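Entry:
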Amino acid sequence: MKTRPIGLFGIMLGMISLIFVGIGYLLLDTQVGLHLTGQFAQQWSSGRLKISGLQGCLLGPLQIKALNYRDYDTELSISSAQFNWNWRYLLQGRFFISSLSIDKFRISRKESEADTAIKGEVQQLQLPWFLKHIQLHSINIKQGSIDYGANSLRVNGSLDRQWRFNWRLTIPQLNKLVSKGKGQLIVEGKIAGARSAPEFYLLLPKTDFIWQDWKFKQIHGELRIKDKKWFCNLLATQFQKAAFAIYPIQMHFSGSLRPFSLRGTLSHFKLSRLTETDGIKQANAIDMPTSEITAELGTAGLKAKFTTSQTSVMQQLSAAIQLPHYRLRMWRNRRQAIKGNIQLTLKNINYLANLLPYVKNSQGFLDARINLAGSVFSPTVDLTLNLKKGSTQIPALGLFLKKINLAFHTDKNLLQGTGQLNSGQGSLTFRSQTRLKQANFPSVIDVKANDLEISHTKEYKITASPVLRIQGNSRHLEVTGFILFPKAEVTLDEGRENLAELSPDIIFLDQKKKMISLPFTYKNNVRVRLGDNVMFSYQGLHTKITGALTIDQTTNHPTLATGELMLTDGTYKYYGQSLQLQARSFLLFAHSTINHPSVDISAGRSVWVFPEVDEKTNTPNAEFGSADFISSVLQTSQFQATRAIVGVRLQGYLENPQITLYADPPDAINSQLNKLSYLITGYPSSQLSAGSLKILLNAATNLGGKRSGFIQLIDNARKQLGIDQLDIGINPIFNPNTNSIQQNTSVIIGKNLSPRLSVSYSLGLLDPISILQINYLLTRHFSLQSTNSNFSNGIDLLYKVETR
């Protein structure tokens, strides 16, 4: 056997290997190598790294007095750490740490937009891949914290043969991690027990927070896991969502982890519906009995059951579900089969009345059963629901519904329903169909009723006979058909008569209208006809209404109406007078908004009319404002009386009609003032006292709309003369001829010349007495008044005392 001499290349390769081994030994197993590695890491680190107090070697053990690292969003600080590891385990793909001791460490990371939670979801945090290959034999942390924005995790404890760890998680702003969450969340816990069989304790101190639309008040929870067994207690003062609240919640559960099982109790609680009436919030609650909950996961899949205790009212409430061959990692499997059933039996439905605050004294027997089969994402539903011998009262409508019988059942994923009820002397029946397999559950409901009482209150007594078809789904609704109102009595604002309307120039600010938002769109077309016995009373108007309308409703559009309503056989009370409604009084809807019809309503009374006469010329009807008016206006007529109709007419639109006076025949009464006088008193204005003239003036003012000739005359006179007062009143005057004070009905004209000086002039209607008064305000309490009349002149010093 021959040996070949080692060549130069072999010698060089050996020397290079020795050099690398030497360098490796120098770097890995000497303190000099540790310092060189530390300096290299500080120089070439992507962030700013500072290490001090390095002792030992890279192969361990090593000590660090202080380490600080910072980059653009992360900061790490460690003080007084000791580390030892076994490099041989790297050959097995593991990073084995035999001991790790840290006196204090802190990891802080800033929040960024990229770290925010996906809308509606909780952000999922994933551990770095290398942490899965780390194996710890012994660890001791005296104080540690991990901060993510304002959120923090505090840890301390040790692990050798026993677990001795404590931690506390604080999330001061839940919406930073959960987009629909609000409030603060604090969770704390500990890990104890043997290394191979740790025990976990989790505690949720009393805290309040909001998730989506749910408000959780004073939640307190405990979770303990020991020897593959788990125990959980959850207490809460209240869960609340919109109009519903559940309180208090007490749940106690226990079970095993492998195989998974659960057995627990949901203690008695109240289910409440929150309502608001006239700004006052009310809570109506029903008592839910104690319930038992069980669940287990085995070779046959997942089985769960929920059963409530029987009470005097609730005979049974139970639910069971089974997912054959279910596995945790297969929960999204669309082929996953399902079997389940739900059953509810109530001896008296009055138990549920508090959840429906608008009904009272409900009676009836309810039995409902639901069976589920098929797959989880496309189950077959078999439903049966029966309500028998039902009755209820609706106080807001004054109704008593009786003989209520409802029945629903499924037939090949088609939900069919029938029902009937009585109200007043009438009855209602309906049939419905809903397709459960189709999107949004398209449905058809046919409703038919005869003389059904739909309201019986002081204001509304209404009977209806509808024939309607309702078609729609969970997103859209359409109603078509016909409604006959054979009988109705509507009485509104009966005590308010002859009210003066506010000027259309007046605008109310900060008026908040309550908008009702519906979860679906709608398009309705219904024809309405009023029968021969529909009575309507409103602000002095008492009439019978007949006619027909077609009502059109569309989402986000005003309700439109087309048709005509006639007012017949009615009266209208106006300042104590009962006026007969004239023929062809109507409300016309020309495909206009239902609250904006055009109106033409006339009401009048029969009166005897006597022409007015001028004593000097013996001619009738001296005009208002003429030179001879004052002396002739109150004279008795010498001409023959005639019969005439005088009345009031409303024309235009209902919200702001023009009100005018009329006479039939038209030339029977020429003056608007006399038309109003005959209408209210039955006499001409020339025969009225000053007090009656004041009433007449007030009535003329309240005509509204287009002003009467008399009021228009006064307004024009005020504008043209630039005066502040033009009125009819009573002026007391001392008459030296009779040695007494007499009341003189006069036309009064006044003008404010300055804030302190005013002048008024009155001209008597009964007696031709003129009075001129000048008033000058000296101080707050003293004023001078000069009076000049046909009888005398004088000046007075007036003193005014104000009292509170």
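Residues 117-127, 496-513, 614-638, 704-710 have pLDDT under 50 and may be disordered.
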